Amino acid sequence: MHIISLFELLLVVLAFYAVVEFEGTMRLAVVLLCLLAVFLVERFDKRIQEDEEVRIRLQRYKILGRKKKVQTEEAKQQTHQVVEGAIKKYNPENRRGNPVAKEAGKTTKSSPLA
């Protein structure tokens, strides 16, 4: 049981005690104040629960966003690896029979800009 529920129970018991023991306007005032306090405490408890649910939903949303971001990054890396592999496989510099590509490779490797 929550502390708030115990407090509400105490207020309700106090209201019944006031009905039995007090007289006149004091009886009505104590009962009304106790019931009003129970109503306000219940609303406060409900608001706390709603805030907790919102916080949990926000955390789930952030986690899903991070998962999607990680999946996107992984897909980019896989695509990059596939493209790099295709470039290396079909690169004309890697072919042995092409003397122009060999000369182009020599000039780029020995250039002072590289």
Q: What percent of residues adopt helix (DSSP H or I)?
A: over 70%
For the sheet with most strands, the description reads: none
Q: How many beta-strand elements?
A: 0
Low-pLDDT regions: none
Head-to-tail CA distance between termini: 73 Å
Overall pLDDT score? 83
- H and E string: HHH
What form results from the Cα inertia axes?
rod-shaped
Strand content: under 5%
The whole-angstrom Rg is 38 Å
Tally of structural domains? 1
Structural class: mainly alpha
The count of helical stretches stands at 3
Structural account:
- It is a single chain.
- The chain is mostly helical and 114 residues long.
- It has one domain (3-91).
- 84% of the residues lie in helices and 0% in strands.
- The protein contains 3 helices and no strands.
- The protein has helices at 3-21, 25-90, 99-109.
- Helix 1 (3-21) runs antiparallel to helix 2.
- The chain starts with a helix and ends in a 5-residue tail after the last helix.
Topology (SSEs and partners):
Blueprint: H1 3-21, H2 25-90, H3 99-109
Helix pairs in contact: 1-2
Question: What distinguishing features does this structure have?
Answer:
single chain, 114 residues, mainly alpha
Entry summary:
Helices cover 84% and strands 0% of the residues. With 114 residues, it is mainly α. It has one domain.
